[in-house]
Amino acid sequence: MSSKRHSVTRHATTGWTLDGAAPFDAKTRIFIDTCSLMQEGIGVFLDGLRPLLRRHGLKLIAPVGVVRELNRLGEDGERREAAQRGVDALRRLEAEGLVDVRGEASDPFPDNLFQSLFTRYRTRYRLFLVTEDRGLVSDILRLNEAASVARIVGVHAVSVTREGVRPWVLNSGAADRTRPGAGEASSQAAKRRREGVAAEPAFKVVDRARPVDARPAFTGPAPELGATLTDGRGRRHTLEAELGSGGEGRVWATDTGLACKVYAPGRLTRGQVDKLRLMVSRPVDHPAICWPTQLVQDAQGEVVGYVMRRVAGVPLQLSVCMPQILETRMASWDRGRLAELASGVLRAIEVLHGHNVLLGDINPRNVLMRDARHIFVVDCDSFQLEGYACPVGTPAFLPPHLHGVELRAQLRSLEDELFAVATLMFVIVMAGKLPYAHTGGGELAENVRKQHFPYPLGERGSRNVPPGVWQYMWSHLPYYLKEGFHRVFDRGERVSVAEWQLSMVRYRNDVGKGYVTAEVFPKTFKQLPREQAEAQGAVWMSCPDCGEGFGAFEPWQRRCSTCHARARQAPLERCIVPPPVLPPPMVLPLAAPSGPSTAPRPVTGGTAVTRRPVAARRIVRPAPSPPAVVTPPGAVVAAAPPPQVPTLSLWEQIVRFFT
Amino acid sequence: MTAPTLTLDDLIINHTPRVPVAICLDVSGSMAGQPIAELAQGVHTLFAELYDNALARASADVAVVTFGARIDKIVDFGPVQRKPFVQMLADGLTPMGTTVNYALDLLEARKQDYKAAGVSYYQPWLILMTDGAPTDDITAAVRRTAAMASAHKLLVIPVGVGQAADLGVLSRFSPQQRPLRLRGLAFTPFFRWLSASIERVSNSTVGTEFRPFDASNARASWAL
Q1: How far apart are CA A132 and CA A230, in angstroms?
Q2: Of A377, A535, B27, B213, whose CB count within 10 A is highest?
Q3: Which of A368, A388, A469, A575 to mutate: most B Cβ within 10 Å?
């Protein structure tokens, strides 16, 4: 399944469909989304809808999740008024018996629900979705295209405007696209087909790296805050605030509402300028990709950087990759949203691959997110295209054979890229844990080179799984994801972007339907329900430790897997190294300072506190007994070094005193 | 001295790949007065800057060892605190060999912690800062440090303070990297640079030719 989202627009016609009529019948179901209920025109919209509902004996369907969302937004300062408008509208409809609030508290988020409902019932009912969410509309309307479903009664989406109702339409080029099979996704031909009439690939396939022109493009000082730069069209951009900085330079917000990357002096090579010129001349226009739009020059007329769209977002590195953030600021997130986020990332990657562009340095710092639906790929200047290599890489995301290779002269293959894609998918569903992190591991890059993947699959047992929630998280992942990760990290195969996309869409639906846990941090291993366990030949037992029932597949199993693992897990304690004890200093009359100015004073936080003079402190106290060495299982504790006897001559002491 | 964390909970809660850094600071008698006050200020700057950068805070794992009349681990590995309690007393000699050995043991033990917790880590760093010459036997420590540095298992950053600092001795610890001399008492710029360097390693991309201890880069801020 190709999952590129198409842009959608509100059609100029007022009405429920393109011909303006409302083709309702008894087999029609109308669903409404939160955002539409909050529109200013909701009153007008409902006034028009009421007679239609009554005529056909229908009710407007609002999922429980929508009501819940309205209530939540009602507490929020900014949108309280709009949310209240939605609540009032629903109450009136309820009084008139024209609304049906359906679902249960455990239902997934409304948009997931709409997708799964529409997918399931599109052949039986004429379905309408009232929403303002373009992404959702695009996904829903694309159900009409699915060739495998021959007799679709029709899936429609409409928008609430001030004048009433207007239908959503997919933009041209969408309907007659051909869809490549998942397996073909890597071939260039499939990519061309996928982009179809909508877009020819912006870049040619070039198999050989261009010679590196490393001469610096400018050497003068980099423009600072307040500097005005001119782009290729003569438009002037003033640097207003720094957004971030890195090894290559700094990114600024401009007064023109854009972001501007300014390289550090000497960091911008002439080769890079040529590459940027090429990129600017053939822009890849996609909301999730911050493509360079114009080169900018300083007052001396030298190219110092480029401008791009300014987006607001947090790097994945500092959001979904940090458990401490996921558990606090992102506590409302579930696995459905993680899967949705992953889908969004894959979509952007697919678009770029469709243009024969490899991202090269895929990593969680180069992808920003605003929420699960909005991700942005940044640092586009490092992309690999038309023979220009991606000069940088992130060790954990580089396939082993590229470690220690001069990247700026080396073109990467799609296989190299897919290793990084798989790693990114792994960190998104595993809260940032790297695939090769394991107990007894070594330095980060070393771990990747060793290719020791600790997580189990089927017959292949776990090997050095890191302690903590990771094994629980892994056990709850659906088989198709686990297998994908195993193929890449254990067997060294590759999984195409399209396959990942398929898995992530499926994962999102499975989470939505409750087939797999929605919890980001599950507290136990996955347990099969009784019927399933017994059907697979297990004996149903009660765990003596936690009291929960579990299916015992092996005769030796007495506890559920979680309690079993807990019982085996020894507490982890730190390696302790006792501090060395110095031999008593030789007390020399000369070494004693004479005046208060040289008296040593303990210093705390930059404020000196006067203490007793040094002579008094020369009294050697008995050394504190070293703390007991606690050895964690399997750890080697380095022995404390034997104290060294200072080899210090009288002359040295005198010299020291006078210097 | 900060209370030692005896469990690996901090590594299990925060799994961000770590940059282990052991900082050895000379607090011998000759550092008394303004130098040690500036040094303590510099250490505070380091922790404040690490703390204020989300990624650096998650990935930096810093221990501070002072050496003078005694060898003290004044800050232990573990979660970065914004303002750790730092107490330094300028007194005694310069037991550099013992201290470096101790710091290497600390790094080694911390690596064992990482292995037990399954946390990835970057090449460990050893910062050695002195204003004089060692007063104990350094041959064993030199051999160990040099071997690790040559095998890319350790990054040594040797810094001399003042004209009395023996850069010749420091260079024995660091076969790859020539030691630099601190400009005056520019401890704060040094530690600010160190914080930025740690952040950049945790952000590291290979291929950008980022050498943390880049002399020209260091000269711009704190080195002579």
Answers
A1: 38
A2: B27
A3: A575
Terminal-to-terminal C-alpha distance of chain B: 32
For residues A265 and A277, what is the distance between their CA atoms, to the nearest angstrom?
19
Separation of alpha carbons A126 and A112, rounded Å: 19
Closest CA to A507 of A489, A533, A524, A482: A482
The chain A residue lying nearest B104, using CA atoms, is A638
Buried b (16+ CB within 10 A) or exposed e, A500-522: bbbbbbbbbbbbbeeebbbebbb
The per-residue pLDDT for range B164-187, each reduced to its tens digit, is: 899 999 999 988 788 889 998 899
A150: left (phi over 0), alpha (psi -120 to 50) or beta: alpha
Q: Nearest CA of chain B to the CA of A208: how many Å?
A: 19
B112/A632 touch (CB, cutoff 8 Å), yes or no: yes
Cβ–Cβ gap A603/B113 under 8 Å: no
Chain A residues in contact with B96 by the CB 8 A cut-off are none
Residues of A in contact with B112 (CB under 8 A): 575, 632, 635-637
Strands A249-254, A228-231: pairing is unpaired
Residue whose entry in the numeric block shows the structure tokens 């955002």? A35
The predicted structure's pLDDT at residue A152: 53
Min Cα separation A72/chain B (Å) = 29
Distance from CA of A160 to the nearest CA of B (A): 42
Chain A environment of B72 (Cβ under 8 Å): 579
Cα–Cα nearest to A396, from B154, B17, B61: B17
User: Distance (Å, rounded) from C-alpha A353 to C-alpha A286?
Assistant: 13
- Whole-angstrom Cα distance, residue A551 to residue A110? 34
Between chains, do B98 and A443 touch, taking CB under 8 Å as contact?
A: no
* CB pair distance less than 8 Å for A644 and B97: yes
Angle formed at CA A159 by CA A155 and CA A160, multiple of 5 degrees: 140
ipTM: 0.82
Cβ–Cβ of B121/A443 closer than 8 Å? yes
Per-residue pLDDT for B4 more than 70? no
For the whole model, what pTM was predicted? Answer: 0.67
**Which among B37, B85, B207 has the least Cβ separation from residue A392?**
B207
- Mean pLDDT of the A469-479 span: 90
Is A640 close to B105, i.e. CB distance below 8 A?
Answer: yes
Residue A620: pLDDT band with limits 50, 70, 90 = very low
In total, chain A counts a number of residues equal to 659
Question: Inter-chain contact A605–B83, Cβ cutoff 8 Å?
Answer: yes
Which residues are CB-contacts of A587 (< 8 A; sequence separation ≥ 6)?
A618
Mean pLDDT of B130-155: 91
Question: Which residues touch A330 (CB under 8 Å, ≥6 apart)?
Answer: A319, A320
| A82: pLDDT strictly greater than 90 | no
Summarised one tens digit per residue, pLDDT across range A252-271 is 999 999 999 999 888 899 99
Tokens 């909701």 sit at which residue? A42
B134, B105 contact by CB (below 8 A)? no
Least Cα distance to B214 among A382, A409, A247 occurs for: A247
Name the strand (E) or helix (H) holding A368: strand A367-371
- Separation CA A368–CA A345 (nearest Å): 10
Do the Cβ atoms of B120 and A248 come within 8 Å?
Answer: no
Q: Got the DSSP string for A149-198?
A: ------EEEEEEETTEEEEEEEPTTSTTPPPPPGGGGGSHHHHHHHHTTT
Residue type (1 letter), A298? D
